[in-house]
Design a protein that fits this description.
The protein is of the alpha/beta class. It is about 40% helix and about 20% strand. The longest helix is centred in the middle third of the chain and has 31 residues.
Length: about 375
Amino acid sequence: MLRAGIVGLPNVGKSTLFNALTRTRKAEAANYPFCTIEPNVGVVTVPDDRLVPLSKISRTSTIIPAVIEFVDIAGLVKGASRGEGLGNKFLQHIREVDAIIQVVRCFEDPDIIHVEAKLDPVSDIEVVGTELVLSDVESLGRQVEKLERTAKGGNKEARFSVEVGKKLLSHMDTGAPAITLDLTPEEREAARGFFLLSMKPTLYAANVAEADLAGAGDLPLVTKVRDWAGKHHGAEAVVVSAQIESELAELPAEDAKDYLAGLGVAESGMSSLIRAAYHLLGLRTYLTAGEKEVRAWTIHAGDTAPQAAGVIHSDFERGFIRAETVAYADLVACGTMAAAREKGLVRQEGKEYVVADGDVMLFKFNV
């Protein structure tokens, strides 16, 4: 299972957000730096509004949603790449995740300690980004030196990797993360072998106060985060209120919905964050629907029908014949699979078909 790591400076709301995401109290949330030392791990359900309508069509009460894993990582401070704070331990924990969610504090509260004298979310983002890049430069420098020795023996693959490594080093020397360097598909494949921290896809979570949630999209601090993320990292920023989300996690679904409505908010920021993280990890969902259950299956973007079938069972992929496929919207509009067939909306897809998010599929196979 792919993992998204929750990172940020101390006391920005990481552990509170993690507890709300996982509906647990696994992560200690306290008003002092480094209250999280060892990472906390939790499996989180991916919200999907398509499952209930499908269950009604299939006449089943059993719904199984997709899930992803979140990791709450200790707060980073300036100088982490040199061992400050939890330093190398922190960076190693980031190395073990597949994507980064950086929580950024976008609220004033004199009762909650902030590691900097002034609240500036963009500065906070740059502190974390700089430490990741500095760590990468040191790590990549060593790797390139080693590859150069191999390349001298005539190894073409090593020579190409050296070229890519030097290109990355030149780019990161400007302070830019590795992920923003324009690389060819071949260069990007070589770059993956360096396991760079700043090459990981990143999402920013702008953590706002409860009173600001309804109009948070227009807050100056949130606007700064969104603009910076898009311009400097090509990344998305999602607004959340970790404190509100932790309170909502304690409530039944209907009560939580009423609570949000009272605040003038249509949907929990947590749902948006989870879906954004799911897509950030390059994950997509196809659906199966029958009398036994309705289920969301996780695949990678670009997976073919046989690969999607293999997620259910390796025999499905090995003996794949075809996939009976209908788009979710078409099936719901028709009301039944039989009606969708009558209208010619159910397709027979073969081995080359690339599965689309929201496809409802039934596999035919022979082993």
